[in-house]
Amino acid sequence: MKDALQSILKKNGIEEWLIRIKKINGTQGYYILDKKEMLRFQNAVQIEVTVYRTFAEGDDKYRGSMTIAISPSMNEKEIGEKLKFAYDSALSVKNKWYPLSNSASRKRTPLQQSSIFKDGFRNGNGAQWVERIAGDIFNIEHQGVVFNALEVSVSENDHSIVNSDGIDYSWTDYSCFTELVTTTASGEKDEAELFDLFRFSDYSSEQMGRRVKQQVLDTLDRTKAERLSSTGDLPVVLKGKALFEFFSYFINQANARMIFEGMSVFDKGKQLQSGGDLLTIDAVPALGGSDKNNFVDRDGIIPVPVRVLERGKMNSIIADLQFGTYLGEEITGNSRNIHVGPGSFDGDTLKNTPSLETLEFSDFSMNPVTGDFGGEIRLAYFFDGKNTTPVTGGSITGNINKVIDSIRLSSTIITEGAYEGPVFISMDGVTITG
Amino acid sequence: MTAQSIVEKSMVKVKDSEFLKRIKPEITKIVRLLEKRFDYVSVLGTDTFGYKYQLSGDNSSIEESMWTERGFVARVLDNRRVYEYSFNLIDSGVGEEIAEKIVEAVEDSDPNGFREYALLPEEPLNLSFNDEVKIDPVSAGAEKIFTNLQNLFDRTLEAGEYIFNARVVYEWVRVAKIFISSVRNLEQTYIWSQAYLVPMARKENLVKIIYAAASGVGGLEILKSLEDRIESTVTDAELLLSAEPIIPGEYDVVLSPDIAGLVAHEAFGHGVEMDMFVKNRALGKEYIDKKVASSLVNMRDAAFPVRQCGSYRFDDEGVISGNTLIIENGILKKGISDTLSAASMGTVPTGNGRRESFMNKAYSRMTNTYFEGGNDNVDKMIASVDSGYLIDYTQSGMEDPKNWGLQGIALIGREIKNGKLTGRIASPVVMTGYVPDILNNISMISGDIELSGSGYCGKGWKEFVKVSAGGPYIKTKMRLG
Fold first, then answer.
1. Residues 301-320 of B with CB under 8 A from A
2. Looking at the DSSP assignment, which residues form a beta bridge with residue A47?
């Protein structure tokens, strides 16, 4: 398909272009209790083509572009017509000129995915992987808790990216997820539910086991949880999935496009923190079994790690090809995993400090522009200095700029999905609504 | 371009998919071949495409819509076991090969451990639906669309002292689908559009953004409603610069149609998706024919005849669009279902089986979900509040149908004191509460309803589909934080 597309591009007189191809071979199992509701198979190819134009008005040079999807079922005539439409439309996109590739990136070597799936996916083994992962989960001890519904998806993706400027990379990665719904068994005070969507690119039955066991414990505790009432001012401890979302604020603020458009207050070299544990945050292209690993980004740039914050000081910008060029930055490519350095807080200190320790939210959200964050609590632990009570309901809200000087980071770190960093963080100045 | 020039043209028919027409005989061949081997066979085919145009200061872009898809999903029932096969590599003459691959995939997998389904028999049906559009975006061209967006952009920047930039977005999508089974032959084609205006306000080091959105079944004409909202949106963006956090507590609240839609969608809509009944994941299952809301409340989910972004004529399982009265005078009447959950529950499918794309499974999903209008008006509601907020601008929401918790985040709470808006605003506003309490506390409902379909809906954190939600202004009580 790659060669055929290049030939059609040439026939249509399109000289500057980029082609992205992703071939997907996937299998999904959907379970209600421990029975399969359905088994699904995916066999598809996704193709995107960006066509570029270079034009000038007076002394100013511009870059026009348009990205289109090409279906593998399109014939040559259809593809030609769509490419022509894109080529004509690209003239209406009048951006400051930027190059199609970057010399520094071309000297880098793309990382390769290391995954247990690598030796065992080629020959239609997706269904076996689904059965194996589901089996691992169903075999985990879960007394008092029902595994109500489970989805398991495994996909092998063959990627290639090629452009008119000589970039030509191919690689394979794996995108998988499990979604497990746990409910306390009938007869408990109130049935309580938690669900966990876990995305990964490599599989470890031990890691899956730890995660599911924790979900079982959390579900049991949610059953016992009291409605959150007034707690007064307390440090709030964040744990679990909310941490990635929380720290994503800094990654977004360091994004070249956000800076170019004026939506970021990122100011290289400026000290952001005057207290608390000083934050060191990196955007990294690959992390363990993360589903956000980016071996080559959408522009064909091989991404490198970017230290966004160093000891509380704004350090470097995540510079994609277009907006990084505008800002005069070294092109780093886009990385989507977050690494946060550890701090000074240990688990014993946490246990002895009155706090609201939040584990599960309905949907913890962080506004990437304003830094406002919050969410409804599905499970938290309220420690009043003497007793710990599981609580549910109510919410927390805050603004990152107002809490940043009080942030304390755990000294232990965890790698889970696209996040590697402190197991928990604590902060003051968060509003707790009971 | 002025507002006048982008409205009121005669309607034109949305064009069919040439591809689906061309490939339909091959798909029919696949169905006929598989019928010999399986108890039930259907194929859904899609050829959906569209473009997203964005303009922001010194930068603009055109890209394929995230909703673009061209492919097929075959569903087969083998000894009461359900399998699906998604594919997009097809051309004339390869139907036999694809049918063989489907048989092979089924036969190579372990047949044990399945739930057993007896799908309800399909009634024979032929349907062909071609919608109409006022200003066809397919033929409008990039230049005309950018001219409109530039006009909106320029007027937004001129409208406020603290507006330093804005983003304007227009996206259109032409949906074409066919559904073929042993007894059904369905076709539909329609266009929906959505647009955003996002003013960005800055005062010293503080940056705030807000949005106005327009959406609907139709074309470029939807931009007109954004033009009408430039000033109010810019005013709200600048008000955000002086917004204060809310003092946590329970308040009398007046919900805008946008937030009423958020409540309808998150609080109750997800809770009546009947696949959640099958999985024992929704408390609503135990409340059919019981009181769940104030007797003023009527709530509905309708893919047709309502005309918004969640509209269609048949769902992704070949069931004709539904119009379901979910809550009638405060009593929960009925849920919405896909075919498998209907088969499990012994009910009739309501036409709510929807997929993110041909690559995904169908679930019970909402379409256009809304509270019906009542007899009050928003001025009377505000006048009746001693201390509370008028809440507007949805940021996000999440369902919890098992435990009937609500989470919604709004960008603006307009303070009401002694029956009047004070002009002060709080932001952001996290709304939480126990759903039956919120619905039972509804004491006033205004007459006219508005639906907005500019966002999308996930099942948990995935499986995104276009929906709309809305309602009238509603007065109730909520916990705000």
1. none
2. A21, A70
- Of A356, A409, A383, which Cα lies nearest the Cα of A246? A409
Q: CA-CA distances (angstroms) from residue A299 to A47, A62, A86, A352, B234?
A: 14, 18, 18, 50, 34
At residue A123, the pLDDT reads: 54
- For residue A209, give every residue at least 6 positions away whose Cβ sits within 8 Å of its Cβ, in sequence order, or none: A136, A140
Digit-coded pLDDT (tens) for A169-187: 999 999 999 999 999 976 5
SS3 B27: helix
Place of tokens 């689906």: B20
β-partners of residue A95 are A63
- With CB atoms and an 8 Å threshold, state whether B279 touches A72: no
Whether this model's pTM surpasses 0.90: yes
**In whole angstroms, what is the distance from residue B351 CA to residue B355 CA?**
12
Beta bridge partners, B52, equal: B63, B171
| Separation between Cα atoms, residue A102 and residue A89, nearest integer Å | 25
Q: What is the rounded CA–CA span in Å between residue B264 and residue B272?
A: 11
In angstroms, rounded to a whole number, what is the distance separating the alpha carbons of residues A81 and A104?
A: 35
Cβ separation B202–A88 shorter than 8 A: no
Q: Kindly list the residues from chain B whose CB atom is less than 8 angstroms away from the CB atom of residue A263.
A: 165, 200, 207, 209
Q: Is B24 on the interface with A (CB under 8 A)?
A: no
In angstroms, the CA A51 to CA A281 distance is: 35
Q: Give the separation between CA B23 and CA A132, rounded to whole angstroms.
A: 38
What pLDDT score was predicted for residue B2? Answer: 35
Q: What is the ipTM of this complex?
A: 0.94
Distance CA B203, CA B391 (A): 24
Helix or strand run (H / E) with residue B129:
strand B125-130
| Better-scored residue on pLDDT, B87 or B12 | B87
* Bond prior to B428 in cis (omega within 30° of 0): yes
**pLDDT tens per residue across span B163-176:** 999 999 999 999 99
pLDDT attached to residue A125: 80
- By the 10 Å C-beta count (0-12 exposed, 13-18 middle, 19+ buried), A389 is classed as middle
| CATH classification code of A2-224 | 3.30.2290.10
Q: Report the number of secondary-structure helices (H) and strands (E) in chain A.
A: 10, 23
DSSP B114: B
Question: What angle do helix axes A2-11 and A76-89 make, rounded to 10 degrees?
Answer: 60
Say if A263 is an interface residue toward chain B (CB within 8 Å). Answer: yes
Kindly list the domain boundaries of chain A, sorted by start residue: 2-224, 226-433
Q: CA-CA-CA-CA torsion for B158, B163, B165, B169, nearest 10 degrees?
A: -70
Place of tokens 């000129």: A97
- How deeply is B132 buried, as exposed, middle or buried, from its count of CB atoms within 10 A (0-12, 13-18, 19+)? middle
Q: Which of residues 155-214 of B touch A (CB under 8 A)?
A: 164-165, 167, 200, 202, 205, 207-209
A 264-283: CB under 8 A from B: 264-265
**The predicted structure's pLDDT at residue B191:** 96
Q: How far is A314 from chain B, CA to nearest CA, in Å?
A: 15
Closest CA to A165 of A376, A18, A270, A345: A18
Take residue A107 and report the two structure tokens written for it: 């000297």
Hey, where are the domains in chain B? 249-480
With beta carbons less than 8 A apart as the criterion, state whether B410 and B396 touch.
Answer: no
* Interface-testing mutation among B94, B398, B463, with chain A (most A C-beta atoms within 10 A): B398
The rounded percent of chain B whose pLDDT value lies above 70 is 98
> How far apart are alpha carbons A224 and B5 in whole angstroms?
62
